């Protein structure tokens, strides 16, 4: 993934600020992202899509996931106005984006093992 997907400066700053808690932050982001994706995939209302996209946008932004943040922002703004098929395609795009960046965050997690 190139810098259009993940801002490595954000990750560096988080590691500096979080210190020993940085690996835990990565774990929480990965787990929460999976849960949010499950909700997006199964949501049966625009309101739930908007709410979930909003929270996913925030966590993605905090973790430097640039493209994921933008896609979630689009979903948040358009979920109530787009035809359902277009909404589902946007959810699939979010899913693909996370699948693409997940290995980067997992590698980052492995690079910074938790202190015992």
Main features:
mainly alpha; 116 residues; Four Helix Bundle (Hemerythrin (Met), subunit A); 0% strand
Write the layout of secondary structure elements.
Elements: H1 8-18, H2 22-42, H3 46-62, H4 66-78, H5 84-111
Sum this structure up briefly.
This protein has 116 residues and is mainly alpha-helical.
Provide an overview of this structure:
This protein is mostly helical and 116 residues long. It has one domain: Four Helix Bundle (Hemerythrin (Met), subunit A) (Up-down Bundle), CATH 1.20.120. The chain is built from 5 helices and no strands. Helix 3 packs antiparallel against helix 4. The protein starts with 7 loop residues before the first helix and ends in a 5-residue tail after the last helix. 26% of the residues are buried. The mean pLDDT is 94.
CATH topology annotation = Four Helix Bundle (Hemerythrin (Met), subunit A)
Order of helices and strands: HHHHH
Q: How far do the termini sit from each other?
A: 31 Å
- Beta percentage is under 5%
Gross morphology: elongated
Average pLDDT, rounded to a whole number, is 94
* Rg, Å, rounded: 15 Å
Uncertain parts:
none
Assign a percent range to the helix content: over 70%
Q: Label the structural class.
A: mainly alpha
**Highest CATH level, the class:** Mainly Alpha
**Main beta sheet: strand number and arrangement?**
none
How many independent structural domains? 1
């Amino acid at each position: 993934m190139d810098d259009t997907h993940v801002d490595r400066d954000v990750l560096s700053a988080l590691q500096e600020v979080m210190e020993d808690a940085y690996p835990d932050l990565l774990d929480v982001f990965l787990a929460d992202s999976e849960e949010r994706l499950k909700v997006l995939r199964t949501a049966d209302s625009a309101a739930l899509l908007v709410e979930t996209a909003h929270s996913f946008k925030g966590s993605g932004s905090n973790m430097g996931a640039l493209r994921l943040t933008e896609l979630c922002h689009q979903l948040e703004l358009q979920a109530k106005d787009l035809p359902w098929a277009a909404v589902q395609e946007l959810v699939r795009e979010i899913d693909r984006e996370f699948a693409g960046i997940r290995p980067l965050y997992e590698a980052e997690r492995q690079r910074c093992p938790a202190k015992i």
